[in-house]
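Predict fold of CPBP family intramembrane metalloprotease; 310 aa.
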Amino acid sequence: MFLELGIKPENKFWKYLLGSVFIITASFIGQIPFSIAVLYKTFNSNKAFPTDSDSALKMFEPNLTLFLVMISFAFAFAGIYFVVKHLHHQTILSITTARKKIDWGRILFSFTLWAVFSLLSFVALYFKSPENFVWNFKLVPFLILVALGVVLIPIQTSTEEYVFRGYLMQGFANLALNRWFPLLMTSLIFGSMHFFNPEVAKMGYVIMIYYIGTGFFLGILTLMDEGIELSLGFHAANNLIGALLVTSDWSVFQTHSIFKDMSEPSAGLDVILPVLVIYPILLFIFAKKYGWSNWKEKLTGKINSVESSN
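Predicted 3D structure, encoded as tokens:
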């Protein structure tokens, strides 16, 4: 099974800690172009150096910002590949799926399902409160955004999925006795990575319910489906459709999207609804399509020992 693919005598947990440091370092190296751009812009314009990431992200034209930010994820993904191959002596396939090859059909189905749902949800929200949105569409910048987004955003989302639902989930499996522990730890860490997002400052800590809940949802997909294909598709659709469809002044970074949300953000039903209603519905759809069963064992059962998994 998927978790057991990473359980080997030589795969001690300290290797995952070391590997994580390497991946983070690779990501920092990928941030150098953005840092150089910020320094150049600061000195060239004789403005004060930005003291927070939100100010730095707003220094450049949105498409340029998107490009500079996403470079770090490409470096991080290269770091994942290096660590998995040379530190753990595994293949990328082994942290992707328990199947003999990557199931691209699963990725496409998950992407399409969430993309359609996201579009329909926005249409309903727009007709309910059209005054909250303004037309933000500009043809050339939008086409550049599409070109950049289609290539770079899946790299970003895939990197996050490979780190949390692939690499770290197998890493914590080497430390745990049951399957619940990797699910819990990766979900909490995934949620905490969003702690410094501007949305948290605007909406309050209650939005962490959404981030951590999303981590649990993606983790459950991985454990029940024995691979990260469904989470790869979902995450890519979530970020890509969001970037193309609507932006706001309080989001992590702005894009040349079709609409701009002018409403004052507040954490309410929209934070709780996905976690308690929408995600369970999606799990039901996936379970029916892929014939999932034995939920208790797959989510909370014991992890096979090294001896029994080899």
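The chain is about 65% helix and 5% strand.
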